[in-house]
Amino acid sequence: MSQGFQAVRGMNDILPATSHEWEFLEDTLRAWVASYGYRQLRTPLLEPTALFTRSIGEVTDIVEKEMYSFTDALNGEQLTLRPEATASSVRAVLQHNLLYPGPQRLWYLGPMFRHERPQKGRYRQFHQCGVEALGYAGPDIDAELILMTARLWRLLDLPAVELQINTLGSAESRQQHRERLIAYFSEHVDLLDEDARRRMHSNPLRILDTKNPAMQALVEAAPRLADELDDASRLHFQTLCALLDDAGVPYVINHRLVRGLDYYNATVFEWVTDALGAQGTVCAGGRYDGLIPQLGGKPTPAAGFAMGLERLLALREARHGPRPAPAPQVYLAASGEGITAYALRVAELLRDLGYDTLFHAGGGSFKSQLKRADGSGAEVCAIIGDQERADGSVALKPLRGQGEQHTVTLAGLAAAIAPWATPRSALPGNPDIPSDPSSQ
Ligand code: ATP
Ligand code: MG
User: Fold this and answer.
1) How far is the CA of 29 from the centre of ligand 2 (A)?
2) pTM
3) 308 C-alpha vs ligand 1 centroid, how far in Å?
């Protein structure tokens, strides 16, 4: 390890050896959200601190101890690196009046920042992909959000993830439940840890998602919100469950699922796995009908979810192992006096034909270049020497599979190379590379 600068603890470099795993995941995510009609929203990484304290809630892990907040030395503004993107999304939607024409389906992808204790699956800079369905009262959209996530697990071919759902009811039923919880925890103060004692009066619901093993029995026996749900919330939840049953999506009702952010109401859900150790939640979401008015908008129902890309990648790797790193299709070796201009021209022609081409820059003997070509993973080596330049030709040598090295004219290049390599432009996912250079 170098003696020089190190990255900030809990913030990772994504190196070339794994960046293709990220690209694959991001490509899959983009196609997946598009298939449900979501449009991307990109917001700044910095927001006013008050946006998060007001939306996520003062008495939550994120706001109490995880935010990177600072005062802008130039103008004294209180700023925070976003710990999540729902608040930013709602801020942007209100600022630009995006709900004026009607409901919006939005998605985002990017880094989030939380000052947590770094461990496997838990970082200080991590990445989330999330969607926000704004202006939809559900439960149809709640069901679609869940079907959508279930489809992603199939697209990524992940090991089993379990769906846990719950309802937090309306603001009124939560208020009633809150009072019963305070009474219950007051009777058992001696069993509460320090966090729980502090939160008992300010945010007793939060105590239910404690990770402290010593408190599990206590929270298990706590009064359940399900027992005092209002009729509308009960019907909303029953309808959602029926839609999931119809769609054949299995779920577990977890009465203790409350989510770590204050803005949720009615439906909440998490997808969890035991394949990742302690950091088992890969995706979490729910309904947050109160958030838009809380941030100054007209009352508008909303629901969404966010998932951690590091955890999704770890889960995919647990089943499939690492993905093979991408390789160029053609390696171009060239040697000879003044050969460079011709070599660059042939390399460009290969790219025009749709082949990813790695040009051997820096010269050297053919022997050493061919060694590099082999190591590159390319399917074909294109070789150019003085003779080829004089003839306007190129020698092709297959690096894998059958075939003999032979020399072709540039006009015959496309036909000669085709048996050994498929142009990237003919592969799915690369529609923007023209396969016929004459059409340019
Ligand atoms: P946890 O209970 O694991 O702390 P959370 O409830 O704080 O999660 P959310 O705010 O709901 O998480 O974020 C949604 C998803 O983002 C999580 O389910 C997880 O996959 C991912 N995530 C959250 N915090 C981190 C982190 N520090 N590092 C990596 N991924 C994270
Ligand atoms: Mg957390």
Assistant:
1) 23
2) 0.89
3) 6
